[in-house]
Amino acid sequence: MADAKWFVVHTYSGYENKVKANIEMTVQNRGLEDQILEVAVPFERAVEVKNGVKKNVERKMLPGYVLVHMEMNDETWYVVRNTRGVTGFVGPGSKPVPLTDAEVRNMGLDKEAEEKLPEIELDFEVGDEVVILEGNWENKTGIVKQINEHKQTVIIAIDMFGRETPVELSFTAVRKKY
Questions:
Q1: Extents of the domains making up the chain
Q2: Which end of the chain is more exposed for a tag (fewer CB within 10 A), N or C?
Q3: What's the rounded Cα separation, in Å, for the pair 170 and 135?
């Protein structure tokens, strides 16, 4: 729908997936599929290293929040607002404020923009030493701490003033140190 926008719904902490399932069930039962298009709990994939063991994990990007792509009207507001576990919409007072287009893209909710990203083959992984090719830290080396394939960024720990400092860069701004 042309009028559908993404809204942020505040939930009880830890209830995000349950709220998502409850909203989807209510939408199906009431036949509101054309007004409430999608319910999402955004997460990011990350690689954690604990005790020397690499482990792929999924982390909630916004703990305590659920995103709903919907056409805002009295009926859809009522359905979402009165779902068990929902404390309210994000916005001043009782007026929900939709996410901007830029916010939608940054969270990876814009399917069209996602399809336009080219596939990039990486020559490094978490734990590798890399060289920064451009920007303020050009020619500095650092250790890859996290890779976000969705945003095509990498977080690198560089040594700055004797401290490990995380820096987020695009895939194309770094290469593996040989």
A1: 5-116, 129-176
A2: C
A3: 11
**98: its two tokens:** 């939709």
Q: Report residue 128 as tokens.
A: 């590798």
CATH 2.30.30.30 given to domain 129-176: yes
Q: Output the CATH code of domain 5-116.
A: 3.30.70.940
- The mean predicted confidence, pLDDT, of the chain is 84
Q: Which residue has the tokens 């969270």?
A: 107
Structure tokens at 143: 């250790």
Question: How do residues 95-122 score in pLDDT, each as one tens digit?
Answer: 899 988 888 877 777 655 444 556 677 7
* H-helix or E-strand spanning residue 151: none
Which tokens is 160 given?
Answer: 């700055």
Across the chain, how many H-helices and E-strands are there?
4, 11
Q: Tell me which residue of 54, 22, 46 sits closest to 36, measured CA to CA.
A: 22
Sign of CA dihedral 18, 24, 29, 30: positive
